[in-house]
Amino acid sequence: MDIKHLVNITSRAWSVPILAALHAGVAGRQAPLITATGAGRTAFAQSMTHLIEMGLLERNPGHGHPLRPEFRLTTPGKIGAEISHQIWTLAGEENRDLLRKSWTLPVLAIVHTPHHFNDIQRALAPITDRALSQALKALEERNWVHREVDPEARPPRPIYSAASTGAEISAIMAPHLAQN
Questions:
Q1: Is the pTM of this model over 0.85?
Q2: Which residue(s) pair with 57 in the sheet?
Q3: Displacement of CA 86 from its chain's centroid (Å)
Q4: What is the pLDDT of residues 22-52, one digit of tens each?
Q5: Which of 22, 83, 90, 120 is 20 to 30 A from 167, alpha carbon to alpha carbon?
Q6: How far apart are CA 89 and CA 110, in angstroms?
Q7: 88 and 116 together in one domain
Q8: Domain CATH for 59
Q9: Rg (Cα) of the chain, in Å, rounded?
Q10: Domain named HTH hxlR-type: which ranges (predicted)?
């Protein structure tokens, strides 16, 4: 998996919770998954369609009703679901809202090692200054990212690195991002 693939997965708020729920053994039908994730029907449907288009989910042939289909993880989906489940479990109930934001996981993946703001922005090419600033601020507020000013740079520039739970989540993703 590369960073662009991770950005694509997390572009839908409920993708990670759906994958985590499927890995945990929740039945691959709409009602149990909506109950397990707490998603609204429209957002859930958009996330499911997105996961199918990405090749992480597929309809389970021969199972389910045409109006209530059953879904299963594909081979790449199983890997993504395992990672999602580890992250979802580690974050805890109080931080799951942060995981549903588009840029949280991609930013954490980049700041596994210390990076300057511009380096993070280059690595996450489509991200805007404002979106990156908001993501970093939200992560700093939860103490998932540590901001330290580089005193030797002129002008002084902050360096961001994963901290506490953010570092643990980043460590889960790092080996999978390094493969490609």
A1: yes
A2: 73
A3: 11
A4: 999 998 888 899 999 999 999 999 999 999 9
A5: 22
A6: 21
A7: no
A8: 1.10.10.10
A9: 17
A10: 90-180
For residues 27 and 84, state if they share a domain: yes
Cβ-contact 111, 165 below 8 angstroms: no
Which tokens is 135 given? Answer: 């993501």
Do 177 and 106 fall into the same domain?
A: yes
Cβ pair 49, 87 in contact under 8 A: no
Q: Give the C-alpha separation, 139 to 87, whole Å.
A: 15
Taking alpha carbons only, the member of 173, 172, 161 closest to residue 111 is 161
Residue numbers of the domain that contains 149:
101-180
Asked if 50 and 15 touch (Cβ cutoff 8 Å), the reply is yes
- In 3-state terms, what secondary structure has residue 71? strand
The pLDDT tens digits of the residues spanning 113-130 come to: 999 999 999 999 888 999
pLDDT for residue 64: 65
Tell me the per-residue pLDDT of 117-165, one tens digit each, with 9 for 90 and over.
999 999 998 889 999 999 999 999 999 999 999 788 788 889 999 999 9
